[in-house]
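[Automated response] Your request has been received and processed.

Submitted sequence:
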Amino acid sequence: MTPLVSVCMPAYNAGAWIAEAIESVLAQTLEDFELVVSDNNSTDDTAAIARSFDDPRVRVSTVSPKVGAVENHNRSVHLSRGRYVKFLHADDALLPTCLEEMTAAAQEDERIGIVFAPRRVKLEGEDVEWVEEFARAHEHFDELQRVNDGLPLFRQLLASRLERNWVGEPSNVLATRACLEEVGLFNPHLFQIADFELWLRAMLRFRIAFLDHELTVYRHHSASVTAKNARVGRDWLDRLWLYQGLLADPALPGPERAQVRRLRDAALRRAVFRSQPRRLSQRRFNGDLPDYLAYLMRPAGKRPLLYEPLDG
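Generated structure:
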């Protein structure tokens, strides 16, 4: 039988946390779900721990060889079957009523594409400044309602130059399968902000529901993929690809398209004349910028999709 909601959990070397994450799913007040664990060829006991749970709703699939983190997010969704998709990182957790409340909100309006809520931050380490700056990111929006038109939210983010993700990480978002079938999955060109780019694409087409209380737990720690990417600078072209992804979307209105194009052009100048020369001087050259320029040189009608589609 098709479950109402699929909890999609990409995982890699998450043995220290995944049991707690799975237990939080199994403790949900809504029981009509499946938990899809997409293990990215972990070298620790991640897969073994996930398979140790004796519950038919838990499905574990290991990919080999290892793929990129964003590709593994997409893989977890491809493996899922539910009408709603609840993302959950293997080092985070759901509070007990999360699935019940988020699916109820999504069912209030057929044009709702994503549902989000504040998350409780569990700090492991001493990065108190991060918590102070980002724990309540949604408060930057003006007057969030329970159900919001997506385009005004997009315009508020655009007015801030798309600098910050005010929605939050995948673990505090639920998406409808109809939304993902229409807007596509995560853009694998991005390392740090693939989630933000997907939320922006959803806002261009769908309504956005917001529940004004904590429903998830976000673990902030130095061993996360996000922290590792930041330390090595893997995300240095993320902004450029984010702008390009929006420009490739026919749902982006004309005035907003002009603003995004200006942001893209400024980011391209920084990459060509500042970031790439600095990386060359540090002997950190790779093909990221040439790959982007090769994409840009193609005629618009012959450019490949920047995100992975989800077939209906």
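Summary generated for your ticket: The first strand starts at residue 5 and ends at 11. The chain has a mean pLDDT of 93.
If you did not submit this request, please reply to this message.
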